[in-house]
Specification:
rod-shaped; 0% strand; 91% helix; mainly alpha
Length: 87
């Protein structure tokens, strides 16, 4: 995901969260119930962000390993060619 796309996605999530929070403030519930609900939802959201971050890190590690393997193979190929030409 490009940085631009990630920024847009984060702004969208922030807007959704802000809109939901404002809607809850005008909901026909007591303040205590609304605060508990918001706390629970914030905790759930934080857990999802952590899980998503871990998934992104895992995918990044896999891509890094694949890229490193490809580069190592290319270096080996170049070295074999160099040895064949130089003798």
């Amino acid at each position: 995901m490009s940085r631009h796309t990630t920024d847009k996605f984060l702004w969208m999530l922030g807007g959704i969260g802000l809109g939901a929070g404002i809607a809850l403030l005008f909901a026909p519930q007591s303040g205590r119930d609304t605060r508990r609900y918001l706390t629970r939802k914030a905790r759930d959201g934080r857990e999802r962000v952590v899980e998503t971050g871990e998934e992104v890190m895992d995918r990044g590690r896999k891509v890094y390993a694949q890229g490193k393997h490809a580069v190592d193979e290319a270096i080996e190929f170049v070295d074999r060619g160099r040895r064949a030409v130089i003798g």
